[in-house]
Write a structure and sequence with these properties.
This protein has helices at residues 5-18, 34-41, 61-68, 84-93, 129-143, 155-162, 172-180, 218-230, 236-239, 246-252, 266-279, and strands spanning 30-31, 51-55, 74-77, 98-101, 118-123, 146-154, 181-189, 194-195, 202-209. The protein is of the alpha/beta class. The strands form two sheets. The protein has a seven-stranded mixed beta sheet, sandwiched between helices.
Length: 280
């Protein structure tokens, strides 16, 4: 049982009284330990933005910890309306600080005109984490509105996001993420702190915006990395031949065409993508 057993029992009672059943389909696993929730919220600097968005607040434990950590404006995006009573109850407790949108984060329009600097935080559902992340990255690329993100993933997904080239975990997700953010695993979370208990370990990943003013089109980068990693055992002179010829790789970009997908750095993928943007 988590260390903060009173908090744990309080939320289990809320679950029972509210008739809420964690959805396996939606990948819902809740953290009740107040110490862990506070540890996560301390990774967010409330002074660095004018809005914090929490995706999938569920029971609102992390939400309340964020308010108590000094977040002045918090937007909760929750897909599952079975949490509406608890979240509206939380909003009534902090009416000037919390707003709620009962929508799917994947379809949510993050282009909120009243806010220029936004931080994102989420205990992401395992089954949709990668899809939500790629959606957030695409939006940030087009607007540069997101400062930092604090996101929880299955541990092996976190390792893919933060992997360096030459590592077996390095791939498309590593490159697209590191194009826009400095990504670090802050700490791991044991399955025992969740209810229901998942079968995997989790990790908290911090995304610090690189605030890029230039670089390739993210769609081009996605195209290049898709081609390279769909044939990751082949040399790039083969996997990328439909996009760029070997002579240009060697002579114009100074990249060894005999390298394989995982042997190219993020900067080399950016160089290839920028070149393709220039000639197309």
């Amino acid at each position: 049982m988590p260390q903060d057993s009173n908090h744990y029992n309080q939320y289990k009672k809320k679950l029972k009284l509210s008739g809420i059943k964690p959805s396996k389909k939606l990948g819902q696993n809740f953290i009740f330990d107040k110490n862990i929730l506070n540890k996560i919220t301390r990774l967010i600097d409330p002074t660095s933005c004018d809005l914090v968005i929490e995706i999938g607040p569920g029971l609102g434990g992390l939400s309340e910890a964020l308010v108590n950590n000094g977040v002045n404006k918090l937007l909760l995006i929750e897909k599952d309306k079975q949490f509406s009573y608890l979240l509206n109850e939380l909003k009534s407790k902090y009416p000037n600080q919390i707003d709620i949108s009962f929508e799917d984060a994947i379809n949510f329009n993050f282009d909120l005109s009243n806010y220029k600097n936004i931080n994102i935080i989420s205990n992401l559902p395992y089954n949709a984490a990668t899809k939500i992340l790629t959606s957030l990255l695409s939006f940030h690329y087009s607007t540069h509105k997101f400062n930092d993100m604090i996101l929880m993933f299955q541990k092996e997904v976190a390792q893919r996001i933060t992997a360096n080239y030459g590592n077996k975990d390095y791939g498309r997700l590593s490159i697209i993420s590191q194009f826009l953010y400095q990504c670090n695993i802050e700490f791991d979370l044991n399955p025992a702190i969740f209810f229901p208990r998942p079968n995997v370990d989790s990790s908290i990943v911090s995304f610090k915006s690189l605030k890029k003013k230039s670089g390739p089109n993210i769609k081009t980068l996605e195209q290049v990395t898709r081609a390279a990693f769909s044939q990751r055992r082949k040399k790039i002179k083969t996997s990328l031949r439909d996009l760029i010829n070997e002579i240009d790789l060697i002579q114009k970009l100074g990249i060894d065409s005999n390298l394989r997908a995982e042997q190219l750095s993020v900067s080399q993928y950016l160089k290839i993508s920028e070149y393709l943007d220039a000639i197309n």
